[in-house]
Structures
1.
Amino acid sequence: MVTTAPRVGILSLQGDVREHARVLTELGAQVELVRRPGELAGLDGLVLPGGESTVIDKLSRAFGIQRPLREAIAGGLPVLGTCAGLILLADRLADGIAGQETFGGLDATVRRNAFGGQVESFEADLEVPVLGAPTVRAAFIRAPVIEQLGPAATALCALPDGRVVAAEQGNLLGVAFHPESTAETRFHRRFLDRVRRA
Ligand code: GLN
């Protein structure tokens, strides 16, 4: 049997690119840093990192990669988005800045900065039924929440107050927190399973 490492891009305009690169490399992926449209060619999957969605949005337009990225996502490219990356995956945005756009794909309304500013950052242990035991240690850093999900999307986990903080839809997986910064690899593994199957 011949197995080749999946080629996984990380959108590297801004944000916590290195943390994702480390986890993906550990899990056997061949990581490519993506800034320009041509760098999307031949990718088996893409990660949209945490960072600042307003900045990533603006830079994606400046680099001319917004449209090709939208087309790649709409065409079925497996994508993992964390925090700002979840915001960028959402079809609908609440509390965006004026003129802020997303790449879309995930039939969801995502609210930016749902918990307030940096000082309101926190960690929580979450049950994620599709991942099984143990619970997920989740770091929320100026994190968004998923306010509404369309029929094609499925909630994967929620805070004790019921607010949804991870969801998936087909090849798209969006997480409001930062698994890449708490040694939690199961979301990346789930994403890579999608990548290998796609
Ligand atoms: N609040 C940030 C935004 O709007 C997201 C924060 C994060 O990715 N840690 O993009």
2.
Amino acid sequence: MSRDVIAPSILAADFAKLGEEVQRVENEVEMLHIDVMDGHFVPNISLGLPVIESLRAVTSLKFDCHLMMTNPEAYFDPLKAVGADLATVHIEVFPNPQGVARKAKAAGLEFGLAINPPTPYAAIDSFIELCDLVLIMSVHPGFGGQTFIDEVLSKVELTRKKVDSLGLSTDIEIDGGIGPENIRRAKDAGANVFVAGSSVFRADDPVAAVTAMRNAVEA
Ligand code: DX5
Ligand code: ZN
């Protein structure tokens, strides 16, 4: 079984002091979740290469780049160059993701595949072996601060079954509406990577918020 990973999503941070916000939690977490939105796949724009590059200079955390984009492939080499470690693309954009997975790996990136709430598990079932990480969206992508959609936990369970039956160590990430109150349920369904934006960076004490999630997940 893979280790538990808490990955704060910087989308909820104060972008005017992003470096400080990240450094505040850096020793408490294993990875940083970076949402890149193109204003096309999702109705929002967030941040891009220059921000990732600036962050790389202030932290050695693993960079988990969630690419909510219709043409992420064009950016694999530039993402690697600015310090990204993992690139996650959407199954809704790449229904047959073999080619895009190969390109991400050729660029030196780990490969992740994300699935939106309405998309059935069957869409990703044949592609689990391509993935270093499978991201189950627990909100509709595009915005932070939304309410966790319980129904997606059945997809986490199915993904966990598949990963274990294949004897893989693929990470299973849950993203959206995660906090101390529901992180344990996500773990029990089979997730081992927990993205948390608002519940960390909008908390009065982000370190205490991470600790509360860590305690809940390890209890
Ligand atoms: C939504 C993003 C999420 C978001 C999570 O499109 O993919 O990563 O930042 O934010 P919270 O934890 O606030 O739901
Ligand atoms: Zn995300």
3.
Amino acid sequence: MVREISAGGVVVRPAAAGWQMAAIEPQKEPSGSAPAAKKQSRKVILALPKGLVDAGEKPQQTALREVFEETGLTAISITKLADIKYVYVRSWGDQQRVFKIVSFYLLRYQSGEIDKIAPAMRIEVRRALWIPLDEAVRKLAYRGERDAVRRAQEYLKSHPEI
Ligand code: ATP
């Protein structure tokens, strides 16, 4: 089976009401779904920023690079959270099954304005937004990403100095 290795981030920042987390709304429709006939009926999919690890790149560097490209934020790496795994079928070309591993890191927001991204990135990202961290598990579309967020919550609870 074809393999893909990606890396991404759970970017957090403190706010008056608690931690916030950076999420993205990917541009594409989820696989298997019919094309959205009516715009208002489109289900909003929220996901974590991530992308393929380039040759010679360390996954942690990929996470920081992809977070910047997809959200407009710079961040500092705190710890690794999880490696998540899933299989999907490519919707293009020869419909190959892909086994994918994505490493997620806990990142602390440093600078930048969310969703201020290069116009070319709109092919991938409909928008990037801050959401309350304690709503992320409910709002994220994919189980593996929800697990990574749970680990982030546990880490932040046990490391209040961050
Ligand atoms: P990358 O962001 O790593 O460059 P991509 O945008 O090419 O990758 P994915 O985000 O892996 O590709 O999406 C490919 C397919 O897998 C889509 O159908 C998507 O809905 C699905 N998918 C994405 N993330 C997950 C996940 N965590 N669990 C299960 N399926 C997922």
